[in-house]
């Protein structure tokens, strides 16, 4: 059974950093692309970043240069390193598993999410 468990969100001030993580189980993590999405209150869920099984990374324009996605295959964990956070980054952040080794429009499964709140 595929499970994705996020942790590491929180309440911080603008300019601070956070590093949410996503512990995965129930599938071949090392050969699967992973991603992060976010959903702010009253808005649709949006893509934030993805990492292929080979480590290639992709970012939404809104976070490029401030966020970094990484993976630890030995720990079956994906991280989202968030720097210089802004109030507009406030959202629930969801870990995502893609069907294969590269990112696709379709996501196989989302985690339950972790709340990130950035105060001004």
Strand content: over 45%
Specify the structural class.
Answer: mainly beta
Distance between the first and last residues' Cα: 40 Å
Helical amount: under 10%
Assembly state here?
single chain
Number of strands: 11
Unreliable segments of 5+ consecutive residues: none
Radius of gyration: 13 Å
Largest sheet: 7 strands, mixed
What is the mean pLDDT? 97
Q: Give the count of helical stretches.
A: 0
Task: Explain what you see.
- This protein is mainly beta.
- It has no helices and eleven strands.
- It has strands spanning 3-7, 10-13, 21-25, 34-39, 46-51, 57-59, 67-72, 77-82, 91-97, 109-110, 114-119.
- Strands 2, 4, 5, 6, 9, 10 and 11 form a seven-stranded mixed beta sheet that branches. Strands 1-3-8-7 form a four-stranded antiparallel beta sheet, with no helix packed on it.
- A hairpin with a 5-residue loop joins strand 5 (46-51) and strand 6 (57-59).
